[in-house]
Automatic annotation (TrEMBL):
Source species taxonomy: Bacteria, Pseudomonadati, Pseudomonadota, Gammaproteobacteria, Chromatiales
Pfam families cross-referenced by the UniProt entry: COX2
SUPFAM superfamilies listed in its UniProt record: Cupredoxins
Organism expressing this protein natively: Halochromatium glycolicum
PANTHER family: CYTOCHROME C OXIDASE SUBUNIT II, NITROUS-OXIDE REDUCTASE
Domain of life: Bacteria
Domain Cytochrome oxidase subunit II copper A binding: 75-173
Protein name as it appears in the record: Cytochrome oxidase subunit II copper A binding domain-containing protein
UniProt keyword terms in alphabetical order: Copper, Membrane, Metal-binding, Transmembrane, Transmembrane helix
Main location as per UniProt: other
Localisation: Cell envelope
Length: 173
């Protein structure tokens, strides 16, 4: 068996070497008949490159139209201080108006918690970590009226599941 494998391997190596030899032996000096094709290829490549650059810029700009970062807006958002602790949320203001922008300033009095704001149809609209010794800010613009829920997204002990609060968002006047 071993001998057969060795022979097959040697035969394969000899074939590869022979193929290399044939290719090298047959190659001659390069003639210049291709210069026209080469020029044309470079031209196509240059325009294709420019097209791809432009296309990339357009796609990037288009995908940023709903700009994900806070744009600044008119006036600073209202600040609401939030402190998480086992197992409750201390939220300075639990009411807001539709269209209002608020900035939650979130910290923790004990261990890490996850501050998450859920819209009335249970979509997460904002979340950040509540960390002892740090204040993390997250901006929210309330788009629809109703009861928004605040839940903890970081397992923080026995009653983690009960760590909930509500924010009431009403139609603006
Ligand atoms: Cu928690």
């Amino acid at each position: 068996m071993q001998t057969a494998v060795l022979l097959i391997t040697l035969l394969g190596m000899a074939l590869v070497a022979a193929a290399f030899y044939v290719v090298v032996a047959r190659s001659g000096p390069r003639d210049d008949d291709y210069s026209g094709i080469t020029q044309q290829g470079y031209l196509i490549r240059r325009w294709w490159f420019l097209f791809l650059c432009g296309f990339g810029v357009l796609v990037s700009a288009w995908s940023l139209i709903p700009f994900p970062l806070q744009a600044g807006g008119v006036g600073a958002p209202r600040a609401i201080d939030v402190t998480g602790r086992m197992w409750s949320w201390d939220i300075a203001s639990r009411t807001a108006q539709v269209g209002e922008s608020v900035r939650f300033r979130v910290t923790s009095a004990d261990v890490n918690h996850g501050f998450a704001v859920y819209s009335p149809d249970d979509q997460i609209v904002a979340q950040t970590q509540a960390m002892p010794g740090y204040v993390n800010e997250v901006d929210v613009t309330f788009e629809q009226p109703g009861q928004y829920r605040v839940l903890c997204l970081e397992y923080c002990g026995l009653a983690h599941h009960a760590m909930a609060a509500e924010i009431t968002v009403s139609e603006g006047s």
